[in-house]
Amino acid sequence: MPGITVTAAVKTLTAQHPHLDIRLLRTSWDNQTEVVLDGRADVSIVRLPVDPQGLRIEPLFTEPRVVVIARDHPLAGKDALSLTDLAGAHLLQDPAAVPEWQAETRAPHANAPSSSGRTQRGGKLELVATGAGFCVLPQSTASFYTRPDVVVRPAPGLADNEVALVWSKAHETPLVHAFGAAAHQLQP
Known about the structure:
The protein is α+β, with helices and mostly antiparallel strands. Helix content is 24%, strand content 19%. The strands form 2 sheets. Strands 1-6-2 form a 3-stranded antiparallel beta sheet. Strands 4-3-5 form a 3-stranded antiparallel beta sheet. α1 packs across α6 (174-183).
């Protein structure tokens, strides 16, 4: 997943098992568990929530979620942004990805969010930069996709993003557990 670096875990596993041929596969929100269920990967590091059916899930760490907004947006000068601050702006992602926003938009003063569907992160940031709205991302993802025309602000009131290791219940091996032990050293 963008923003999650697995280098340390791969190096640890390689040192323990030098005969292994480890290959990394970049995933997205849409296929982060599919790759283990269909056998393309032995393990996946995912951002929760995911459908747990057929999976073993082992929590690894949490990280803050942040708001990404256009540098020239009137709210960009604030040190932190609450969802109340953003009630008049458009959310440029699936509202289900930000449950707190769904609760905020039920308030009488809030505009209904708009969604750009499954726009890729780079495309979402292009929309953010034009002032079309804002998005909420895990902090490491926002750091991965830096741009000079958007700003990242802390968002008190947003729950942390949870990162976990998953693997197929049907493909549980000692090497999967060895990678899991190595993955516990990962941090955002």
